[in-house]
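Before the break, one more example. Copy the sequence into your notebook; we will annotate it together after we see the structure.
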Amino acid sequence: MLSPRFLLLRSTASLTSRSFSRGAVLRQGKAPDMAEVRNRLREIVGASRNWSDHQQAMADRVSLSNMLAKSQSDLPQKRMKDSIVEAHLPLGSNPELREKYLTFHNTVRFGRILEDLDSLAVLISYTHTHNPALKKSPLSLVTALVDKIDMKQHTIYPDCDIKFTGHVTWVGKTSIEAKMHMSQYQNGAYSPILDATFVMVARDPENKRAAYVNSLKPEGPEEEKMFQDGEDNKVRRVELSTASLLKVAPTDEERKIVHGLFLNTLDTKTVSFRSRHLPTNSVWMEDAKLKGLEICHPEERNIFNRIFGGFLMRKAYELGWANACSFGGCRPSLVAVDDILFQKPVEIGSLLLLSSQVCYTQGNHIQVRVHSEVFDPLTRQHNTTNVFHFTFISDRDVPNIIPMTYGESMLYLDGKRHFNQTVDS
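Here is what the structure looks like once it is written out:
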């Protein structure tokens, strides 16, 4: 089975071609496949192709630490156009590739798209930080957060070519925001499918501490607005973190909602706090779970020999979709992905536990939260690695989800917050 093929096109005003000049990726206009693109990423950081050699390859990167900038001002300022990358996924012309993306229902596996978006975000970030004087980048650029993925169309066709475009839109001292757009060729033109915003962080060659990245200089009103949107996104993320239900109590309005749910489940015959009954067309939150386990093999490693973030997103999405499907009794469509936080890298050999929970419903919408953690069978310790939030829509109204405990009520309110954020955006 062939890997997905991406065509990296050169913008007349961009430096994209420079970042791909070594290795001759653009050989006589031939479109490289995804394996070649990932090989290029390996070349950028000096990663080993073979997992058995990864320890030596990572050890060799330690010597690159002296190439890191001492401050951001030591690095040349970059423009948004310097990081423009366009990529094509030729599903229409490559039947063998199509098999990798095909679902039983003759649609595209969205989990595969998540993997491609993650790879593209890394590529865009390395294009922004590219230094032509260095053979290897001393930076370890990793996905910190999937801020938002908004679907413009629910159906992705498996036999039509796909185009990705993207570039850096905001830069902090050690972080990069990359926006990407995906469209599909139909009826002689490309139609928008989704918009995605990823946040990457820069680390040192050993991925142990933060590292500086090139600052960004917006040019013109349109770019200045994109940069300001990035600043606003950063402020919003800080505010959401500060207001997290894991840190502060619910608002007065949210407390009333939880109490109303409680009163609606009381058994009027016994009038007891412990006697609860399930309202009509409702499901207890406890009964809306789905769990999975993944053994993290070397095959799923990224260029830093950790488990590829796109793989984690694909597995979480597929579990969340299956949960929404079984809950609603039909095949749901994705509306949005937001606030996927990468808290800790997943090492090769880990036991990855995935737990999906329907935490909020409204009409024909289903809000699903997927929690992933690594389990150490020797120490019996669990450590959270990621939290994923998916909003699905069904072709019919779905049952109401009802929390029973206080903890489930907090999950309910958190799901409601994410759903409202999706609807309001």
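The first helix runs from residue 16 to 19. The radius of gyration is 23 Å. Try to locate both features in your own notes.
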